[in-house]
Design goal:
246 residues, Jelly Rolls, 2 helices, 19 strands
Length: 246
């Protein structure tokens, strides 16, 4: 990973504290190993999930329920027990009403049970909303949608192996699903439905009480832009190389 502020290389410069990060992230350029820039200024929340669910960009820390942090793909990851574990994120963590993206690594312990990995922007009952789930109706199935009743799906990539998932959406345009840096599905969606959201969960359904993830997750990014195919690949390359985005 390399950082630049304008033309100044600050790869070895220490960016300490949330306020410093907020001040500089909009100007910092982050490059993956191929030299492709990642729009880190549009990363509004980032959860490493290597020791806690604190927000490395802002102040929207998560609240853990029966989460442990154990060895994962590279370093530690949040481990979910499949029966009661979840991470509750604060209200309105996705505030853009035009473009959004979510990105993370996840691995399930079985491919035969349905798990909700992420459920955002809902009030507990309103649909549609933003979600990613595994193994719904079909083994080794990855599904997701952004403010749409139509779900994007990918079947055949083992969900019991580490998978990097990115889901993007642009209001009244396209939603796109990427798995391991590769676009696997896309379709057209309508306008975003805006609700006051107090139900933002990692590792379970939107009610907080069902479809608990049995597996691990880490490196969760929430963006106020729809990552392009090039940017999605760059994010995957950076995280797959063992690096956190922040």
């Amino acid at each position: 990973m390399s950082f630049k502020l304008g033309n100044t290389d600050i790869n070895k410069m220490f960016l300490g504290g949330t306020e410093i990060k907020k001040a500089y992230l909009g100007s910092v350029l982050v490059y993956d190993k191929t030299g492709t820039p990642i729009p880190i200024g549009n990363l509004i929340h980032y959860y490493k999930l290597n020791a806690d669910s604190n927000d490395s960009v802002g102040s929207s820390d998560g609240t853990d329920t029966n989460i442990t942090y154990t060895s994962g793909k590279t370093g530690n990851a949040a481990t979910f027990n499949g029966s009661s574990s979840n991470i509750l994120l604060p209200a309105n963590v996705l505030t853009s009403n035009t473009e959004v993206s979510v990105s993370f690594f996840v691995k399930a312990n079985t491919s035969t049970a349905e798990y909700r990995v992420l459920a955002l922007n809902n009030n507990g009952s309103t649909r549609p909303y933003t979600l990613v789930r595994l193994n719904a109706s079909v083994d080794d199935r990855i599904g997701g949608r952004v403010w749409s009743s139509t779900e994007l799906t990918d079947v055949g990539d083992l969900t019991t192996s580490w998978r990097h998932i990115i889901l993007t959406g642009i209001e009244a345009s396209d939603q796109v699903l990427y798995v391991d840096g590769v676009q696997v599905a896309t379709n057209t969606i309508g306008n975003f439905a805006q609700v006051t959201s107090n139900n933002n969960y990692l590792g379970c359904a939107r009610t907080g009480g069902s479809q608990f993830l049995n597996g691990q997750m880490y490196g969760v990014g929430l963006w106020d832009t729809a990552l392009t195919a090039e940017e999605a690949l760059a994010v995957f390359n950076e995280q797959d190389g063992g690096n956190h985005l922040i």
